[in-house]
Amino acid sequence: MTHHSVLLRGAYGCWNLGDDALMVACYRTLRQALDPAEITFLSHDEPYVRSLAPGASFVQRLDGADRIGLLVYGGGTQFYSFPLTRKDRRGRLLLTTWRRVTAPWRTLKGIRNRLRGQPCVERIAALGIGIGPFEPGSAQEVSARGLLGKMDFVAARDEASLELCRRWGREDCVLGADLCFLPGLWNAGPANGMDHRRAAQSARIGVIIRDWPHTREGAAYREPLRRVVEVLRADGHSVRFISFSRRADREWTKSLVGLKEDLLQWDPNSTTIDAFLQLLRGFDCLVTARYHGAVFGALVGAPAVCIELEPKLRIASQALGGGARLWRQPFAEAEGVVAVNQLVEGASEAREALRGAVERQADLAGSMADRFVAFVKAVG
Fold first, then answer.
1. How far apart are CA 224 and CA 220, in angstroms?
2. Residue that finishes a domain, picked among 123, 144, 175
3. Which residues form the domain of 26?
């Protein structure tokens, strides 16, 4: 029998900047209570992940001979379902990221490449997770609700997730924030701010793209975004596309490479998270289809236009207050351009709002982490 004192599960080792950063955040939080040798990650077999959590152990699958003292769902949106999640354009069934990597135990039971037999789990916790949205009555919703009811510690990333937990009877759910807001986690601080005389004529704008196969409404942002970029460039602004996950953004990447765009991509084998955040500091404004684009933008002082592919982009824009704008469905071109221009022209006010928002999120994340560490110490 293999015994794991603490096993962390999330979308680790997927070449995704947000998930890689959450892995680091979870590890450093647990290190406040445990030695590295007591920490195990359920992760894809990617060599780079070992550099993110030095001294920890890594496994690709579990079986009935495994015993887990504490199973931790560590950060990110781990429970959700969308109308098109399980089908491609031709209607063929696909395994979703949620089901493949972070589904509850009973839904994982039949996925042979991840789990062979059911391990013995003594305690379960969720640290800084996002929950939902769900297709009403979906198997994912039923399973997630059942799992949360069995957890010994639950901390939600945002108000919407907290509200859902409480509707499901978890009145003890802790309100936290995204783990990437933990104080002292990264070395790249806010930029000094743009030169307003230059910014009025030529702002540096980063556009964080994402393939979105889950809903037709969300996927419809692609062409409107291209037109917004054309307008911004015609107005004299510098625009560069950014990918946080080359493996998950294959369609966008293929298209941008074909157009000979200078695409900035996260590559964990050639750079570090801190170094990549330093590159993001070079932008005056971000337009993001990824939740963590808004998070990292806030951390480096870059206001963000959040593209409303899904509810968590709206949640991110609300958390950042005046330091963000929301480009709503159905993605009218004029509204996207206006949102960017508002942040560029009001750069000083937006950055000041971001500083306050980051302080609030950091306080929530820090308090959440402290309560989780106290829980881990208490359960031994």
1. 8
2. 175
3. 2-175
